[in-house]
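task queued by scheduler; priority normal; single chain, no ligands, no partner chains; default sampling; output format set to C-alpha cells
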Amino acid sequence: MLDISFAELCIVLLVAIIFVSPKNFPSLFKSMARLYKKSKNSLLDIKEEIEREEKFQELKKIENEFKILKNHAKKNIKKI
C-alpha cells in the first residue's frame, strides 16, 4: 500500500529523533498506530460500501431484465 524504501524510513526516523524526544516515542507510536488503524478501517468500510453498491446495481440490472422478460411473456400469452 505504502511504498517506502529503507532509506526513506531511516530519514523519517532521524527527523523523528531530532524533533521528538525519545521519552515521547511510545505515546507517538501509539498515536500513529491508532491513526493507521482508523484509516485502514475507514478504507475497508469504503471498499465494502463500493462492493455493496456494485452488487446492488447488478441486482437492479437483473430485476430490469426480469421485468422485460415478464412483459415479453405476457405479450406472447395474449397472442395465444
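post-processing summary
- Helices lie at 6-19, 25-79.
- The chain has a mean pLDDT of 88.
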